[in-house]
């Protein structure tokens, strides 16, 4: 039967890239191009399997693939491919495949080529395993492996001190989130143990269906924190969200992401598009039933996501580094995805649809943006936009594809129709949902955040396009168009950035909503929302026309502002964009977060405590011991006059010890 | 059937004795390697015959020794001791291979002491009679003392005496507790015995709660010092750091403190006068050791000293998991002992190789070593990742089990321990970045990579860290079986 055959192949999706890692790691050095062909074939196969499974699920969303194998104790390893996982698997393997092909040329000649391909293969394997986990622990394990690979890849050129530092920063910053995530799992585990009254044979404690079935009972558990009664579900979900904040670069743990460009540009493309940063959004989506049933959790998600989108935009407009601008745009778009999920408190499962739809579209245009940037850097040799200009003349394909990506990021399209870039197709529903949310709850903050962020996004991405591709060269560089092996992936991605959204729009989102609606676990999302005190919007009313057109309008305004300043150069920013302007300086210095985090927080406070603890405390303890030691040595010095040597000392010790013992035992027996 | 338990002591001991009389380094190392291989073979034989579905004692042997005191030579292996014997038997041959190419004076004594140490440690693990247990317990001191004292670093004399006297005093306090147990049981039943399991089960019948607490505390003091835990740890940084690499690894394999906790203290714990208080105390000591070790490690400038404090931090998980008193938390604590032995062996071997090849261990004097020592960099990175608890490697399984399941009973201490996780990642990555990455420090001259025997021996241990990280069941299942037995005792008493 076809069905069984497919299920057997599902295991191969993460396994093949993992195998490719082993082969490339040990034998890549002896192969041409560092053994790149191995991961490419492996990931291509994973993609084909994922795509077939997705298409089959599309025809019948209830044909979910679910397999569980015992791992250790009461925990399991398993595969769950429902619509959500299937979409994620297809996207990750597809984008990763294109980036791998592109990297064959981009990384050629690097002495660490085989190490590069081994690590990106493992990176992809970990991300695929994360997407198809059927339990929270496996998701965490994969999550950490993703973190490890990003550490290794950001620090790929480890001889550069800045790369080594950026890698460490990425790992430690996300680690803060990871600890929260782990704490959430620990609290959940102990709650489940209590509710289930111990272990029962045959059930795996941390499987998603098992966890979801306990949601009503979990919601009855309350903890008292600083006098507030807080539901355990809220605690657990917010701890999970803490993990997502770290991984998905949300405020305030986003600081690692802009530095992460120290790695090769292809690594940035992987991190920003397919693997790593989407993991946080995926985690919240995967556990969405818990989030919606937890009072207040989704509100936190919505606010933080909206704020991050806006916050990232303010920094994006002043950066001069090509990749840094893109890094801030990633943070911003992830903010939109989180915002979309957070709006689930009003729009229910639709939130899953719009967020993941945006995640997929974003993967296409963000991978494209990074690969285009890589193409420019590869050809020109600099990534400082002040030294670029006029690159469009020498690199036409790169210029066109990157402009397509910029249009998608800014969200250009015609409202009310299905004509528009991918970014438009998925970003607009989020903004519209924010409007709906505002109408529903009279809370307009998320909507205002999302509109303001859209304006900033448009400004900085066209600033990038104009500064890089138009005008005259501002430095001496010799550019040339990249080879076909690089431009072909660019063109494919450009096609997706342009058309994927409009071709799949409604079907796609409905498909994703099936994840929790009628497959895997049968949950009534309305009931769950009720548990969390969330009232869902009954029927979406007709939005006023301006709601549909406003996002496009701000995008056009943004484009116009950049056009005037950076293309026509009519308005000279002059002193406005100099370090003398305190606002500009604040933005350029990224709100001094680096200074605040590193010097003040970690070094100042933590080091202060540590210095105190280690120097004072450990010295005290050791001094006590040494003091006793000196007494002992004093005694042994006396004895040494008579006898010398280690054995004698030992014998003395034993004699003294035994006589002490006899005395003490006598004493004890007296007491008895 | 073979008397495996006795052979596991005898074989390394006989090989050790012969090794002492060898003349050349090749003879000494070769013979010691053969001896350790024979021990490994025996251990694998025992492992394959082992039934992990029962908590009962297997390969049991008993011979009358001093009938008037009820002392017997009795030995056996169960799910608590099997994994630790396995750990010892696996690491020692690779330790000998690792140090094969090193030149040092008196190689016959060096390799002889390694095997003596192996025999002594296995002796502690298989002993079922308190006298036998104590003899082997004290025997472990001698090889370690000489290891540090003869082949150690600059402050070797100070470090060796400090270690010796400190842990010896703790052992004497423990012996006091053992005698207390012996006499009290003798009074109770009228029959003298040193049988560990008999005395542990007699413990509950002693009338005075104060006496029970005194006995319990003096015995556990010996174990906690050996483990070690805060605040009885200050022998550790000096001894671990001053020891030669092989000595540091032997210290790491000295898992007798944690073993005593599982074999003797935990079954007694529910019957003490104030079990709740003691559990709280242990939980605190465990969690605080985790945090404290990590904080102090962050401040270290010496790579080896940093690893030593990291070891202290890891041992906190053993105590925390034990105090958790849930089947899986206790299993996690047992697994942490096994995992820690493998991981720390890699770390100390790495630090040792760096010192031998560059002449320094001060982190800031290193830099960019990955370029000159690529093989070491890969293995060391894996060791560091395992040590900071990365999933997919053994450390994570142990730490997850301890944290997740201790939380049921001791949430406050688990949260305290969780604070350490970022710090732990911090000092590991900081050391890695300073020592291995960045621009190569040209002052170090031309540095060689580790030799092929070292790549092989460290590589195999690294692969085991990966293997048991994905499939802990070969040792974890027997740990769970025995933890269940320990915890059900406590549960029956409502602790």
Per-chain topology:
The complex is a heterodimer of chains A (672) and B (495).
Chain A: H1 2-10, H2 12-27, H3 37-59, E1 65-70, E2 76-81, H4 83-106, H5 113-131, H6 136-154, H7 161-196, H8 208-213, H9 215-220, E3 222-225, E4 228-231, H10 232-247, H11 256-259, H12 265-274, H13 277-286, H14 288-293, H15 297-316, H16 322-342, H17 344-347, H18 350-380, H19 391-394, H20 396-410, E5 413-414, E6 419-420, H21 422-441, H22 445-469, H23 484-517, H24 525-531, H25 545-568, H26 582-588, H27 593-640, H28 646-671
Antiparallel strand pairs in A: 1-2, 3-4, 5-6
Chain B: H1 4-20, H2 25-49, E1 58-66, E2 71-77, H3 82-98, H4 107-126, H5 130-139, H6 141-151, H7 156-189, H8 196-202, H9 209-226, H10 235-242, H11 245-253, H12 256-268, H13 275-298, H14 303-324, H15 327-358, H16 369-372, H17 374-387, H18 394-406, H19 411-418, H20 420-436, H21 452-470, H22 473-492
Antiparallel strand pairs in B: 1-2
Helix pairs in contact in B: 1-2, 1-4, 2-3, 2-4, 3-4, 3-11, 3-15, 3-21, 4-5, 4-6, 4-11, 5-7, 6-7, 7-9, 7-10, 9-12, 10-14, 11-15, 12-14, 13-14, 13-19, 13-20, 14-15, 14-18, 15-17, 15-18, 15-21, 15-22, 17-20, 17-21, 18-21
Description of the molecule:
The complex is a heterodimer of chains A (672) and B (495). Chain A has 672 residues and is mainly α. The radius of gyration of chain A is 29 Å and the shape is globular. Among the domains of chain A are: 590-637; 642-672. In chain A, 73% of the residues lie in helices and 4% in strands. Chain A has 28 helices and 6 strands. The N and C termini of chain A lie far apart (78 Å). Chain B has 495 residues and is mainly alpha-helical. Chain B folds into 2 domains: 1-273, no CATH class; 287-495, no CATH class. Chain B is built from 22 helices and 2 strands. Chain B has helices at 4-20, 25-49, 82-98, 107-126, 130-139, 141-151, 156-189, 196-202, 209-226, 235-242, 245-253, 256-268, 275-298, 303-324, 327-358, 369-372, 374-387, 394-406, 411-418, 420-436, 452-470, 473-492; strands at 58-66, 71-77. In chain B, strand 1 and strand 2 form a beta hairpin. The longest helix of chain B is centred in the middle third of the chain and has 34 residues, at 156-189. The radius of gyration of chain B is 22 Å and the shape is globular. The interface between A and B is large, with 63 and 71 residues.
